[in-house]
Amino acid sequence: MRQIDPDFLALPLRRLADAALQRARELGAEFAAFRLERVRAETLRLFDARLEGSSDADDLGFAVRVVKNGTWGFAGGITLTPEAAAEVAAQAVQVAEVSAPLNREPVELAAEPVHEGVWVSLYDVDPFDVPLRDKVALLGDWSAGLLAKGVDHVSASLMQVKEQKFYADSAGTVTTQQRVRVHPSLTAMKSEGAAFDDMRTLAPPVGRGYEYLTGTGWDFPAELAELPDLLAEKLAAPSVKAGSYDLVIDPSNLWLTIHESIGHATELDRALGYEAAYAGTSFATFDQLHELTYGSPIMNVTGDRTADHGLATVGWDDEGVQGQRFDIVRDGTLVGYQLDRRMALLKGLGRSNGCAFADSPGHTPIQRMANVSLQPAEGGPSTEELIAGVDDGVYILGDKSWSIDMQRYNFQFTGQRFYKIENGRLAGQLRDVAYQATTTDFWRSMDAVGGPQTYVLGGAFNCGKGQPGQVAPVSHGTPAARFRGVKILNTVQEGGK
Amino acid sequence: MTPQEVVERALALPGADDRVVIVDEDTTANLRFAGNTLTTNGVARGSRLTVVSIAGSGTGVVSRSGVTPDQIADVVGAADRAARDAQPSEDARPLVAGEAAADWDRPAEETSIAVFRDLAPALGEAFAAAEAGGRRLYGFAEHLVNSVFVGTSTGLRRRHDQPTGRLELNAKSPDMTRSAWVGAATRDFTDVDIAALDATLAQRLEWAKRRIDLAPGRYETLLPPGAVADLMIYLYWSAGARDAFDGRTVFSKPGGGTRVGEELAKLPIDLSSDPGRAGIECGGFTVAHASSRESSVFDNGFSLGPTKWIADGKLANLIQTRHSAEVTGLAETPAIDNLIMEGPAGGRSLEEMIAATERGLLLTCLWYIREVDPQTLLLTGLTRDGVYLVENGEVTGEVNNFRFNESPVDLLGRVTEVGAASQTLPREWNDYFTRTIMPPLRVPDFNMSTVSQAN
């Protein structure tokens, strides 16, 4: 197992925490938490095998969050001295005092055992130890390979993040964590007459190191070898006829549908209205817990902050709660929500399941998504077997456009590739496809879930939520799955053409 | 150390052929509330040093936060090494030359929680009034001040202080079935009238007491300025010259080149940006922390002026770097941080447009807007927080929400009326873009693709 970088441990972590927590206590805070973090992000972008731009940025700072007289107060700072930490703690208390007249709902937090520990995510090669020129050369070689096979243009990018967090609170919890994630992506573009289209690699972002680009966890050369021909076939494919079809959806597409229609819909802060003015609420209201038929009886969904290589996997969350795995949908019924400590106590749910996260030292922790995953069926079918059960349908791979309403009812998704299914077999690609449904109708129409052999962990670096806006990385594991009678749109017709 | 001193020290270190140094000083304060009570709040401060080193035509960009004086050389050294390792940059150009601007030496501006000294009690009163009136208020108030300092080894020194304030107010009925929204963009919150905004919300919740269910279809639709802003911002973000030239966007000409010069709208519509436009003032020079399709680190400090993207209904310019302007043969027109849409003089107010409507839909705002098809810039999204039926010049009730599928480019060609433009806060994109002046639009056949059950 890798260790936390010495230069992070060399920062005055405990001295700053002690100064901040001490000042908060002196000023009467009932609860105080200190969080120091450094988030380093490097992004490379190539176009047609040439470096177009790169950036290497970090965000280093600390935050103090207090509860004073039942009101939150938050302040962030950047000067790493005990005096500055104490001053920021005083600012947080002042913010709580200024805000108190607006608060009608005293803040109380669910109990959590005291933790002390160190946690590092699973990765082999720190991407920040790999020279920039080597990364550019690898992406350049891959891009050149695509251009040599007749595509018009290739864009390539690599995002790499290392996130280091030190947390200490007035209850005595002290944790230090480091996690690494990478997201390589290549998109090939081609035009044919007045039409143009593109196709992106299906490789998901992962909680791994640079080894992900060199053969561990994904076979990039194999995927890239197929891309030019697949794109050419897509450009020449017939436009879909709008209507109702059976769908077989690959994990590379279904992860995003899970994210939008289950992940966000089962965030308790949304269900209780705390995000009502921005991200929205949820059709899965709290009164329906243990009652709502979310999907068909074969639907089982978990929230998990412990999954290997998951983007939302942590040792402890940003409220000092240990990472956990928990049920959200069991046998088709809503049985759980994603929680932070305030929400857990507010609704009498006992311990938080560890879903608090802040994306930077300048932001306050809010309830964010665990790795929310659809469980495969033990001994379940392969993708080919799922397809074999469809007479007239569409097989969808890869995510692209996504949109869902503010209560998570109505969604519309497109994808990277669509295949017509005729009598249980694939019959060539289709173009201009989008699927549109209501969340519960869609999940209730799921009549088969693939086996573990079809399971893939998809995800994104940039799930947005909250005001001020925060982004969170999150993974979603899913098998391939089959859905009956889903509405397919022709996007060209939708555009009035 | 002052930001100016950081710039000078970083520029003075040996090692690279040329260098651009950017220092960003940021302060923020925010209040968030839900159900007539405060939920979260905070203040924060940030400081970031970005060094662009140029060795030959290779560039290295390194950005670090909270840099202490003794760490400046480390950041510069890392950028220098990256530049020496880099391939030649396609966008390499001589750096913008210049001298120190007259205001260069002024200290960075700041904000604090005190910016809400008048707003907070007004919100408290609004919460009480809402509670008494059977409404629940949700929303967010934020103030940010960014002071950016740009120095180059060619002598240019420019700085800009950008205050950005926004307020969103969302009122709901206690059962959450009726919802209304208003927003305001501001530089300092002194011009925000909470009581007036709350009164608008109360009126809209009253409108919503009569519910009318309508099926999907194409409807005559009045888009208020905020909804127009969200659509036009997406169009603006899609107006990169290089991508258009490479045949990848709705502004690509089949067979090669761009559609600059083509008619997009039958009405004499202008879409423009202007750093000096009153009320939505923004930085008057380019600040590029990294190169991309639409920005170049070599353009840092490039002066920005009024720019028409669409003039009299014709596509006039696309977002350019100096490099892409050479590739496309078009004018050097970098991105600017505000957007203005205006129609013919004498446009009516939204209220006058409602009064002149026989039957149509009046929207509040659009949400979750995403691109479906880049060839046409077909976008999908939802209506949110109030779709109202207008009959014989009056609002007669609230209609269900819809998912729409529409292209803002195609829509420009179908608009039948452009109202009077005013400053507005976009709903969907105000995390990224707040400075807009937009008119209400009348679209005879807006495509409501399906019904959303969301309230």
Question: Strands of the biggest beta sheet of chain B: in what spatial order?
Answer: 3-2-1-4-5-6
What are the low-pLDDT stretches of chain B, counting only 5+ consecutive residues below 50?
A: none
Structural class of the helix and strand makeup of chain B? alpha+beta
Task: State the low-pLDDT regions of chain A, or none.
Answer: none
TL;DR?
The complex is a heterodimer of chains A (497) and B (455). Chain A contains eleven helices and 22 strands.
Give a structural overview.
With 497 residues, chain A is an alpha+beta fold. Chain A is built from eleven helices and 22 strands. Helices cover 22% and strands 38% of the residues of chain A. In chain B, β2 (37-55) and β3 (58-65) form a beta hairpin. Chain B has two domains: 3-206, PmbA/TldD superfamily (PmbA/TldD fold), CATH 3.30.2290.10; 210-455, no CATH class. The relative contact order of chain B is 0.14. In chain B, strands 3-2-1-4-5-6 form a six-stranded antiparallel beta sheet. In chain B, strands 11-10-9-12-19-18 form a six-stranded mixed beta sheet, covered by helices on one side. With 455 residues, chain B is α+β, with helices and mostly antiparallel strands. The model of chain B has no long low-confidence stretch (mean pLDDT 96). Chains A and B meet through β1, β2, β3, α3 and α4 of A and β1, β2, β3, α2 and α3 of B.
Topology diagram in text:
The complex is a heterodimer of chains A (497) and B (455).
Chain A (H helix, E strand, L loop, with lengths): L5 H4 L3 H14 L4 E17 L2 E19 L2 E7 L4 H18 L16 E5 L11 H17 L4 E17 L4 E19 L2 E6 L19 H17 L6 E7 L1 H13 L4 H4 L29 E4 L20 E6 L2 E2 L6 H6 L9 E2 L8 E2 L3 E4 L8 H6 L3 E13 L5 E13 L2 E6 L2 E6 H6 L1 E4 L6 E10 L4 E9 L2 E10 H4 L3
Parallel strand pairs in A: 4-6, 8-15
Antiparallel strand pairs in A: 1-2, 1-5, 2-3, 5-6, 6-7, 8-22, 9-10, 9-14, 10-11, 12-13, 15-16, 16-17, 16-18, 18-22, 19-22, 20-21
Chain B lengths: L2 H10 L5 E17 L2 E19 L2 E8 L6 H14 L33 H14 L3 E17 L4 E16 L6 E8 L7 H14 L3 E2 L4 E7 L1 H13 L3 H5 L24 E4 L33 E5 L2 E2 L6 H7 L10 E4 L7 H6 L3 E15 L4 E14 L2 E6 L1 E6 L1 H5 L4 E2 L3 E3 L11 E3 L2 E12 L3
Parallel strand pairs in B: 7-15, 8-13, 12-19
Antiparallel strand pairs in B: 1-2, 1-4, 2-3, 4-5, 5-6, 8-20, 9-10, 9-12, 10-11, 13-14, 14-15, 14-16, 16-20, 17-20, 18-19
InterPro entries (chain B): Metalloprtase-TldD/E_C (IPR045569), TldD/PmbA_N (IPR035068), TldD/PmbA_sf (IPR036059)
GO biological process, one term (chain B): proteolysis
Protein name (chain B): TldD/PmbA family protein
